[in-house]
Hints:
By secondary structure, this protein is α+β, with helices and mostly antiparallel strands.
Amino acid sequence: MRDLSARQAEISELVDTRWGSLLDEVSGTVVERDEARQPPPAALLDALAAAGLHGLSLDPEIGGEGVDVLTWGMVLEQIGYRCLDSALPMIINHTIDIARFVHESGRTDLIGKYAVPIGRGTIGAGIAYTEDADAWSFRTVLRRKGDDFTLSGYKSYVTAGMMSDVFLTYPLDEAGDMVACLVERNDPGVTVTPAEPLGMRTAGAAALTFQDVLLPADRILQASDGLTHAQRFLSNQRLWITCAPLGRAQRVMEDCAARLSTSIRYGEPVSGFKNVEATLGRMYVAIESARAMLYHALTHVGAGLAEPVFDPVLSAAKHFAAEQIRFVLESAFRVSGGYGFYGTPHLGRYMRDFSGLTLVAGTNDILETNLGAGVVARAGRNHENGDRG
């Protein structure tokens, strides 16, 4: 892989110049908001969108700047490095991916009503997929009613659901096929209630109840094979969700090293102890190797080489990065001693927030199974082709 250090410096300057002061404002209230389970202030989210953050990676046709995949991933990484609120980049990511999917539909009516304002930050959006059940056992059902539909069911977890005006929702139809539709917060029969996750308490997570919601037919985004549609969304999220946490892991390592350099034990800085140096070295290896895999996956996707539903390169990068980020946080906690346990409100919060990385967009266990099945399938094809030769 080519040396990207100069590009990283450019991205760091871009983030600092365009959004740095706003990110610092978000950071300034994160401890209190985490305790109260409150998302970033709406005024700050609006200001970030007005400064072009939401539209940076979106297509110019819907008012975006159209930056490439690697650039957007690096921007997220720098936001994670700069901002103390772990949930902010996840909120933005989920929201703009919904705008991207609506735009890809080619539906001019839906693009104008949803994708453009999402990109501008004038409306919020969340994905309503999770039901704590497999996709074939969903209980949220879309039924035909004349020319339109009614929607009933329950979605247990929606990132940014408390701030969303529209939900990209995945129910089953009466034949058991999955559908993708757009449900508005103010539709009669929609109830939004706060969720209480272990981590990401500032993500504005919510649960949704749908009680005979009348849904116009023009709100159906994908009339059949919605599972593939949803898996494409989740595949995208595998790419994005570890970018900002990787930036935060970098900052944790640097802050840890700086503090240990000023902590004196037995007459010398703790950072000079050989076991501490070795721990910091392992943290460095974890971050750099995760970054290499993640940048490779970003480049792979940006070149149009990725499989849309399940891509092994992308999935392997998500799996590996999530494990390395967890390793860095646990190492920082261990080597920081009492300070990590009671001296800072942040490290424990990051450990809670990023504990979900191994679960979201396909658990690491499931990714391992799917990746292994792919290895077997490719080996079989190679063996068969070899036999023919």
